[in-house]
Amino acid sequence: MRKSSVIVLGAIVAGAVALGGVAVPLTNHPKFCASCHTIQPAYERWLESSHKEVECVACHVRPGVSGWLQDKAWHGTRDVAIYLFGKPTEPHNLQAHVDSGVCLSCHRNILRVSEIATRDLPAPVKDVGLVMSHRKHMDAFGQRGQGEGCTTCHAAVVHERPIKGYPIVIPRGHMSADSRPWKPEHPEGSVLHKRAQADCFRCHDNKTEYEGRVLSRKCETCHLPEKLTEFLSF
């Protein structure tokens, strides 16, 4: 190879590296994501959430080279192309998968929490008690092999308004303890409307089996019996 060709090739490589060094940090910033009108509502909710100090890529891009190439380089480039040249998905029909490993990298202590002790529970479940081992649920999701995980129950924790104003977004369940009406703000029939309507009974339906036992719908399956009469009304 002639010296001039080597110089040109070196300049191209150096330019690509320099461009990547500038472009990658810019595309990592949440405001870049929000430049797409489809993402704007999710961005606005994120700004109000408990995760507002956590950048999009921290949750939506898995660590490691493989995660970056697939989640950031491939999916990110595809989404930009669809936004520029195709038909972007409406905000209320967006579906994004967040790997449970990413959640647990910050929240692994939830697998050790004593969820029967009310001192460890947030409102409103602090008042009604909750018997729900996160570790057992994660194990069950793994055995089912249907891609379930943390976001099966907590998908809305960052990009939705807290249900009835509670400080965290939890599964809708059957939260009638305070008599305040609530319904999803998304168009009926949309992906996010259906997700918001989902509750614990999606598995605890008196039909689904786990380890040879049917998952009961009885209140005491999930709540402390001594607190049920006072705080839950159906």
Structure report:
- This protein is mostly helical and 234 residues long.
- It has two domains: 3-88, Multiheme cytochrome fold; 100-231, no CATH class.
- The protein contains eleven helices and two strands; from the N terminus they run ααααααααααββα.
- The chain has helices at residues 3-28, 30-34, 40-48, 56-60, 64-85, 100-107, 125-128, 134-144, 150-154, 191-197, 225-231; strands spanning 209-210, 213-214.
- A two-stranded antiparallel sheet has the order 1-2.
- It is globular, with a radius of gyration of 22 Å.
- The N and C termini lie far apart (80 Å).
- Mean pLDDT is 79; it is low at 8-23.
- It is found in: Cell envelope.
- InterPro entries: Multihaem_cyt_sf, Multiheme_Cytochr_ET, NapC/NirT_cyt_c_N, NapC/NirT_cytc_sf.
- Residues 5-162 form the NapC/NirT cytochrome c N-terminal domain.
- This is Putative Cytochrome c-type protein.
- One of its GO terms (molecular function) is oxidoreductase activity.
How are the strands of the largest sheet arranged? Answer: 1-2
Distance between the termini: 80 Å
C-alpha Rg, in Å? 22 Å
Fraction of residues in β-strands: under 5%
Biggest β-sheet strands, sense, barrel:
2 strands, antiparallel
The percentage helix is 40-55%
Q: What's the overall geometry?
A: globular
Counting structural domains, the number is 2
Give me the secondary-structure category.
mainly alpha
N to C succession of SSEs: HHHHHHHHHHEEH
Unreliable stretches covering 5 or more consecutive residues: 8-23
- The number of helices is 11
Task: Please count the beta strands (DSSP E, at least 2 residues each).
Answer: 2
**Mean residue pLDDT:** 79
